[in-house]
From TrEMBL:
The gene is Siah1_0. This is E3 ubiquitin-protein ligase. The keyword Nucleus applies. Residues 24-43, 52-84 are annotated as: Disordered. Residues 99-134 form the RING-type domain. Component of some E3 complex at least composed of sina, ebi and phyl. Interacts with eff. Residues 30-40 have a biased composition (Gly residues). It catalyses: S-ubiquitinyl-[E2 ubiquitin-conjugating enzyme]-L-cysteine + [acceptor protein]-L-lysine = [E2 ubiquitin-conjugating enzyme]-L-cysteine + N(6)-ubiquitinyl-[acceptor protein]-L-lysine. SUPFAM superfamilies: RING/U-box (SSF57850), TRAF domain-like (SSF49599). GO terms for molecular function: ubiquitin conjugating enzyme binding; ubiquitin protein ligase activity; zinc ion binding. GO terms for biological process: cell differentiation; proteasome-mediated ubiquitin-dependent protein catabolic process; protein ubiquitination; visual perception. It comes from Sipha flava. E3 ubiquitin-protein ligase that is required for specification of R7 photoreceptor cell fate in the eye by mediating the ubiquitination and subsequent proteasomal degradation of Tramtrack (ttk). E3 Ubiquitin ligases accept ubiquitin from an E2 ubiquitin-conjugating enzyme in the form of a thioester and then directly transfers the ubiquitin to targeted substrates. InterPro entries: 7-in-absentia-prot_TRAF-dom, SINA-like_animal, Sina-like_RING, TRAF-like, Znf_RING, Znf_RING/FYVE/PHD, Znf_SIAH. Pathway: Protein modification; protein ubiquitination.
Length: 341
């Protein structure tokens, strides 16, 4: 038996903002001793380069010569120090790019108000005036700040969760998507559960909050989805335990194209993307003189199954195919997990 849950739509805007704020708080409070013991944040060479570009006016006014010597002093003071010194300077520079509304970084294209205040491109369309000075926003591009932004090492969004990595803004989004410090979300499909936490806590969460999900032991089991003719979008979920790991089997019925209902079946590992490489899964429908099979590497729950379903990178069949294999409205899917090692 599998648990079925109707898919519900997801309005997580408030939580999202809250999430960003709490990250910001931690980012500001503790930059030094992360628990993973990561010492070298970013690339020291690049940081030093940044420093020399970026510490111009020490004393403001004065003639060209005076000013140049002030820069020299600043540089020798800062660059002479340790790597951590230049790292903290890079962090200070990164903080100049903080959006005053969402505390995320303001990245190119960078627009400023008439007084020079910055706001990020996500918040900007929602604002009528500058959040700092209340003046008009206009469309003034700040090319100098954009140039500076491309030399600054920004800390990963998940630095407060222990990620020691700092990167150029152009590499930031890609890293954060794959970052192992990004919290895991609840692997149950349907987006109705907002739980987040560490990988080690996922199983406990499932056992406490999703008690009704059945678990079967063994590498070769039958995932029995009942009442597959239920109308609307429906998910069937069950767990399979073997090789010392837990897998979540998901069967989803949804209408990707209007008027055309399809079934999507996929297996995800309660584990990291790296651990997935050690396994393969096979899904098989068996009917009278018919067989439909799919083999692939399980998805990590860190990645989730929604993209795979969207790309049909899973076992896909339509409702009439399902009828060929169903028995009294119940569909049995043979699931086999194997190891590659
Ligand atoms: Zn913003
Ligand atoms: Zn302003
Ligand atoms: Zn990271
Ligand atoms: Zn959950």
């Amino acid at each position: 038996m599998a648990e079925n849950t109707s898919a519900s739509n997801n309005s997580g805007l408030v939580e999202f903002n809250h999430h960003l704020v709490s990250e910001q708080e931690t980012r500001m409070s503790g930059s030094g001793g992360s628990n993973s013991g990561g010492t070298s944040i970013g690339n020291p060479t690049a940081s030093v380069g940044t420093v020399s570009v970026l510490l111009p006016s020490g004393g403001g006014g004065g003639g060209g010569t005076k000013r140049r010597s002030a820069v020299g002093n600043n540089n020798s003071h800062n660059v002479g120090g340790s790597t951590s010194n230049s790292t903290s300077i890079s962090a200070d520079l990164a903080s100049l790019f903080e959006c005053p509304v969402c505390f995320d970084y303001v990245l190119p294209p960078i627009l400023q108000c008439q007084s020079g205040h910055l706001v990020c491109s996500t918040c900007r369309p929602k604002l009528n005036c500058c959040p700092t000075c209340r003046g008009p926003l206009g469309n003034i591009r700040n090319l100098a700040m954009e140039k500076v932004a491309s030399t600054v090492m920004f800390p990963c969004k998940y630095s407060s969760s222990g990620c020691p990595v700092s990167l150029l803004h152009s590499e930031k989004v890609e890293h954060e998507e794959l970052c192992e410090c990004r919290p895991y979300t609840c692997p149950c499909p349907g987006a109705s559960c907002k739980w987040q936490g560490a990988l080690e806590q996922v199983m406990e969460h499932l056992m406490v909050a999703h008690k009704s999900i059945t678990t079967l032991q063994g590498e070769d089991i039958v995932f029995l989805a009942t009442d597959i003719n239920l109308p609307g979008a429906v998910d069937w979920v069950m767990m399979q335990s073997c090789f010392g790991h837990h897998f979540m089997l998901v069967l989803e019925k949804q209408e990707k194209y209007e008027g055309h209902q399809q079934f999507f079946a996929i297996v995800q590992l309660i584990g990291s993307r790296k651990q997935c490489d050690n396994f393969a899964y096979r899904l098989e429908l068996n009917g009278h003189r018919r067989r439909l099979a799919w083999e692939a590497t399980p998805r990590s729950i860190h990645e989730g199954v929604s993209t795979a379903i969207l790309n049909s990178d899973c076992l896909v069949f339509d409702t009439s195919t399902a009828q060929l294999f169903a028995d009294n409205g119940n569909l049995g899917i043979n699931v086999t997990i194997s190891t590659n090692v």
